Model the fold of this input.
Amino acid sequence: GQQVMQIPQYQHVQEGEDFTTYCNSSTTLSNIQWYKQRPGGHPVFLIQLVKSGEVKKQKRLTFQFGEAKKNSSLHITATQTTDVGTYFCAGPRGNKLVFGAGTILRVKS
Amino acid sequence: DVKVTQSSRYLVKRTGEKVFLECVQDMDHENMFWYRQDPGLGLRLIYFSYDVKMKEKGDIPEGYSVSREKKERFSLILESASTNQTSMYLCASSLTDTSTDTQYFGPGTRLTVL
Done:
């Protein structure tokens, strides 16, 4: 069935560096959601993208939905230690929401 | 704010025991979900429910069952716990659409089966 693939699995950056995680689907998605899970915490919804080519920003976070609605990215500018955690993308498959495996972000201060 | 609570943060059980994980949401959401989270595998859906007494299998239902007798409560049952069910279990709820609505997660239950 349709899967949501996420890369990289893990990234360790110096504080102040940028970070990007990518999400790819084998099929067209009607929408995509992004969640963040802090260490020891639970996933928390960040944003949903619906339109082809959509770009949304939340402070230092920029979310993009591809033109073909098969891929998405989350870019963090000038990472801070508060950005650490696991970032998940999720897309619909039938009547379910399918999550990617997540990208673990670690930030060295 | 939506609040999703789970009965235990940590649980230790023995192989063969029957295990109940409880989840309660306070926002009158139609849908509730049970996931397990394992390193490198992300969140995998075990079961979900779209209405009271209605349930549907997720991607990994084997070894689990669920119960939803009241709208606010969704229980995950391990009939005979096995060591490969050691994991973090996350409950979630969403308003009406099971595939597109935002999901709100509980704090999780870390289950260890010895």
